[in-house]
Amino acid sequence: MASITQREVEHVARLARLDLTEAEKPVFAEQLNHILAYVDQLQGVSTEGVPLTASVVHEEPVLREDTPRECLSVEKALANAPLSHNGFFVVPNILVK
User: Lowest CB count within 10 Å: 8, 27, 73, 77, which one?
Assistant: First the structure.
């Protein structure tokens, strides 16, 4: 079984932009190793004769009838917007240089 090292936990945390304390790193390594051990245990289970499934739920989804309705007017759509300008929502700029 492969095991996760503390260095790998640090690498994944850096990729996920998580600030882990020194005390958290070994805890996460241990937890991830428990998960890998469980996955290894599942690898040993025989799935011979088990049909492939896309979902474990055997119910049809309940959907409402798709009927055309009148669209919201621009005024109604913008009625509760904190900021609007010329018929558009004003949102904060998220692009940075």
Answer: 73
